[in-house]
Amino acid sequence: MFKIKKFFSIVFLIFLAFCAFAEGPVVSLKEATVTVATDKIYLVDIADFFGFDEAMLAKAKGLYIKRAAMPGYTIIVTKEYVYNKMVKGFRGVSVEGPNQVEVLTGKKEIPSEAILKTALEYINSNMTWPKENVEITNGQLPPDLKLTDGTVTLRVREDNTIKYKGNVIVPVEVFVNGKSEKIQPVSLFMKVQADCLISTADFDRGMVISETAVKVEKKDITYMPEDIVTSASELGNMVTKRGVGKGTVLLRSMFEITPLFKRGDKVSVVVKIKSVSIEASGIAMADGRQGERVDVKLIGKKSVTVQGKVAPSGAVIIEK
Q1: Which of 32, 44, 88, 130 has the most CB atoms less than 10 A away?
Q2: pLDDT category, 126, cuts 50, 70, 90?
Q3: What pTM does this model have?
């Protein structure tokens, strides 16, 4: 009988020892207020780990808990919530520590002046106008930014739609620790003056404007179109598309390239088939300008109309 009791006592002691050593990994929630520097809370931010092997530890540390509060504010994470998040993927893991953890999101403020400065530096570096001809005023200043704590970088997002005169919106992109957080638009007004070519006489359609018939004046071009002519050299082989009155600020849209031939003129037609060229003659069905496509009625017994591209020589080229 004594031997039986001794046997069961030994078994019981072994059982207790086994239970002691069989205790699984432990997640211990932190007592103090925890500060995070991102918009997400992970288990590693709010807990310590005991008894984990290497693979399970990496998985546990990276467990997403919930979104963090706004910068400068706190959010509560309860022990029960953490346990419910862990029970799905971590068997035998216990959660210890306080019943809740207070998580503060670190705050970093970026003053509106810094955002405005970034926008102004971009405009001054990229505009083509001389700085002395431009007056820049601010619209409504952007608000101070409250961001999660970290390394902040401000950079203007490249935008080909910026016209650099009149009302201008500059998109300043905000990065925290290399990650884009938001785009803050900055409103500016650019008053621009520039040298403009002014006609000193009236011109009919189809006329060439010589250098003696224009003058250069500095004008406020803030609300003018983008294609202002600033030099007579720009009009070298151009003629007016319509009548132009005396005192008009000249625009490139008022001119067109001088045609190499007129409608009804006899033109040379060159048909190219690989390395073989065949020449013919025809009558132009429209004015022909270099690079444009025109219809030509071939001269011959049969009335055939073809279309080709006007070459610098004035010939119409047809490639097969």
Answers
A1: 44
A2: very high
A3: 0.57
- What's the fold here for domain 266-319? SH3 type barrels. (2.30.30)
Pair of tokens at residue 144: 């101070």
Q: Is the pLDDT of residue 315 over 60?
A: yes
Q: Are 175 and 110 in contact (CB under 8 A)?
A: no
Q: What residue segments make up the domains of the chain, in order of their start?
A: 2-105, 109-185, 193-257, 266-319
Under 8 Å between Cβ of 144 and 111: yes
* Bridge partners for 176 per DSSP: 152, 179
Helix H or strand E segment including 85: helix 79-86
254 vs 140, higher pLDDT: 254
For residue 318, which phi and psi values (nearest 5 degrees)? -120, 120
Find the length of the chain.
320
Strands 64-67 and 47-50: unpaired
Q: Is the dihedral of CA 245, 246, 251, 255 positive or negative?
A: positive
Q: Which residue has the tokens 């983008």?
A: 226
